[in-house]
Amino acid sequence: MPSNLTKREIVLNIYEKTGFPQNEVQRTVQMALDTILNALAEGRNVELRNFGVLEVQVRKARIGRNPNKPETDVVIPTRAVVKFKAGKVLKARIKEIDLAQLEKKSDSSSLEVE
């Protein structure tokens, strides 16, 4: 199973397909990511057609427990979180994934931690 996709790989992929200078591609990718980050930081949702939606949601305050000290209650404050909802095209592509390969990857990664 392939490794995680990095920003550098995105830049190289676009560079190879377009021939645009790498530094321009890198700046453009970074500007796109900064625009998404700023919108989310302002509480706006980001909708990328056929890919998905990044939604800012509010998690209510709740009482949690420290697993190391279960007798102690901890107040987890209200906070904003980002949720991702996959779009139609992404959902269709995810259905094509070989689940056996994914399970092998997760099994081998859990073995590496030990």
Question: Could you walk me through the main structural features you see in this protein, from its secondary elements to its overall organization?
Answer:
The chain has 114 residues and is α+β, with helices and mostly antiparallel strands. It has two domains: 1-43, no CATH class; 45-114, IHF-like DNA-binding proteins (HU Protein, Chain A, Irregular). 48% of the residues lie in helices and 28% in strands. It is built from four helices and five strands, in the order ααβββββαα. It has helices at residues 7-18, 22-41, 88-95, 99-113, and strands spanning 46-48, 52-59, 62-66, 69-76, 79-86. The protein has a three-stranded antiparallel β-sheet. It has a two-stranded antiparallel ribbon with strand order 3-4. α1 (7-18) crosses α2. The mean pLDDT is 89.
Protein traits:
48% helix, extended, alpha+beta
Measured as a percent range, the helix fraction is 40-55%
- In whole angstroms, the N-to-C terminal distance is 20 Å
CATH superfamily membership of the largest domain: IHF-like DNA-binding proteins
Unreliable segments (pLDDT under 50, ≥5 consecutive)?
none
What is the C-level CATH assignment of the largest domain? Few Secondary Structures
Overall 3D shape: extended
- Spatial order of strands in the largest sheet: 1-2-5
Per DSSP, what share of the residues sits in E-state strands of 2 or more residues? 25-35%
- The CATH architecture category of the largest domain equals Irregular
Helix/strand order: HHEEEEEHH
Number of H/I helices? 4
Strand runs, count:
5
* Radius of gyration, in angstroms, nearest whole number: 20 Å
Q: Mean pLDDT score, rounded?
A: 89
* Structural classification: alpha+beta
Number of domains: 2
CATH topology of the largest domain: HU Protein, Chain A
Largest sheet: 3 strands, antiparallel
